[in-house]
Write a structure and sequence with these properties.
Nuclear Transport Factor 2, Chain: A, alpha+beta, binds zinc ion, 11 helices, 3 domains, six-stranded mixed sheet, seven-stranded antiparallel sheet, single chain, Elastase, domain 1
């Protein structure tokens, strides 16, 4: 209590020193009220009414604010739609400041009242007297110049799938991500001692590559960008993965909900939902509106098995971390290349997870099937993520030809199984099935005992698929066991008589 009193006194003293109330003659008539806080230019931001003497009708409130802030008739206030509330007989509402009909950004005041008299006034008022209200720069130019300055390769409105999703969500066939501007007045120096009010266009631009989503304030007189604010926020989330228990991961707060986008690792790790599509599009975001950003099994272990997306996502983060930490490799291309996961693919059962990248692209895409024909556990467990990511590394480094699936392709599959095991060991060191590839979804290769799954443990030995054998359609996934078994022996230090 003592602390509070001291604070109030300081606020009162500092306000008194700076003048504050503009119309001295009104001062006595309006008492008693107490100014508890002021902003950088000395305007009150919190006024408490000791006894209730100011009426709460619109005209009385306007006259009171005019006395406090000293504005002229060009200033008006518009009640925020839906802001009026009542609790225990105390009413409140939020007012937006306008000047000559133009909204003043960040100018908003909340008034509370009871029994027809004011109880408190708080908020921020921006002095706008004599501000320019007619733009000189056409709005189209302001938007186009800003887009040019951003210089992205692709914007959201150029992406037909995002546009389509937006139109579905808003049920507006004309909805677009292309920016629309609002004309506003804003104080460029809002937290400083001297105001600098500008007439600005405010609009947001959503760029996909490189990713940025920002709100821009462009001076409607000079055309310069006076302020920009990112609409993208990184927030740590956590959830119940399908195969690896509770895990934490980075997410992104976007349009009021969290989604599986991580831009803290390289140029991003993103996980999309294909909803049973065969290709890579259309795709959707997995979203979560839980205030704690908790992705619970109660919600995501649903009929669609969406919790499997968390495994692919967390698995890709762990894969990225493993290569960075253990091999000093920033994503597969050493340059932070983006990793995109596509979950719930309907690719056929023999290629249940796969990767693709065209030679010029800086995005590695991994698709994961739902495994409906077997046990219905989507193939997103961590060693499969490490395996597919590994194919990107092989493609950008060794360039071993996978043309010959009996040997070259087998080396690549062997390397990928090794990386899958290493990533699994890195992320889940207590796991007892490190060498059983895909053990979380029912193992289908075993690096310690290849013969268990009819794979060879030695070059050209039992189970080896010789060139010309056309009954085994995927000899690369069989002959790969020779290399991965060699790695097992090396890693465990086993002396073994080879077949
Ligand atoms: Zn593979």
């Amino acid at each position: 209590m003592a602390v509070l009193v001291v604070f109030n006194l300081i606020a009162l003293v500092s306000f008194a020193q700076q003048g504050g109330v503009k119309d001295e003659s009104m001062k006595d008539a309006l008492r008693p009220y107490e100014i508890l806080a002021t902003d950088a230019i000395g305007n009150p931001t919190f006024i408490d009414f000791i006894s209730t003497k100011v009426k709460s009708d619109d005209t009385s409130v306007y006259e009171f604010l005019k006395t406090i802030y000293g504005f002229d008739e060009n200033t008006t206030f518009v009640e925020k739609e839906g802001s009026a509330k009542e609790q225990n007989g105390i009413f409140s509402k939020k007012l937006f400041q306008h000047y000559k009909g133009i909204k003043v950004e960040w100018g908003q005041i909340v008034v509370t009242y009871k029994d027809g008299f004011l109880r408190s006034v708080n908020g921020h008022f921006t002095p706008t007297k004599n501000s320019r209200t007619v733009p000189l720069t056409p709005v189209d130019n302001a938007i186009k110049n800003t887009i040019q300055k951003i210089g992205a390769e692709e914007y959201a409105w150029e992406n037909m799938y995002l546009q389509k999703m937006l139109r579905e969500e808003t049920q507006n066939p004309k909805a677009t991500y292309y920016p629309t501007a609002e004309l506003l007045l804003m104080d460029k120096n809002i937290n400083e001692g001297e105001t600098d009010v500008r007439l600005v266009y405010k609009f947001d631009i959503y760029a996909l590559s490189p990713e940025s989503h920002k709100e821009y304030f462009v001076d409607a007189t000079t055309g310069e960008i006076v302020y920009e604010e990112s609409l993208i926020m990184h927030v740590g989330g956590s959830g119940d993965t399908r195969y690896s228990g509770k895990q934490t991961f980075e997410t992104q707060l976007f349009n009021g909900s969290y989604r599986l986008h991580d831009y803290t690792r390289g140029n991003g790790i993103i996980t999309y939902d294909l909803r049973g599509n065969d290709g890579y599009a259309p795709f959707w975001d997995f979203t979560n509106s839980d205030v704690n950003n908790w992705w619970s099994s109660a919600v995501y272990n649903n009929a669609a098995r969406d919790d499997a997306a968390l495994d692919a996502y967390w698995g890709a983060e762990m894969t990225y971390d493993y290569f960075l930490e253990k091999h000093e490799r920033n994503s597969w291309d050493r340059n932070g290349a983006r990793i995109e996961n596509y979950v719930h693919s309907s690719i056929d059962n023999t290629r249940i997870a796969d990767w693709s990248r065209n030679n010029l692209s800086t995005v590695g895409k991994i698709r994961y099937g739902d495994n409906d024909e077997l046990d219905g556990n989507p193939w997103t467990c961590i060693d499969l993520v490490g395996h597919e990511f590994g194919h990107d590394i092989e493609a950008t480094t060794s360039q071993i030809s996978s043309f010959n699936n009996y040997e070259g392709g087998a080396l690549r599959e062997g390397l990928s199984d090794i990386w899958g095991a290493m990533v699994k060991f890195y992320a889940k060191p207590l796991n007892t099935s490190i060498y059983a590839h895909g053990s979380d979804v029912s193992a289908f290769r075993n690096m310690s005992q290849p013969n268990l799954h009819s794979d060879p443990d030695t070059y050209q030995a039992n189970h080896w698929v010789f060139e010309g054998n056309t009954t085994n359609l995927y000899p690369n996934h069989t002959n790969s066991a020779v290399l991965s078994h060699w790695f097992y022996i090396l890693a465990e230090g086993i002396q073994q008589q080879m077949q």
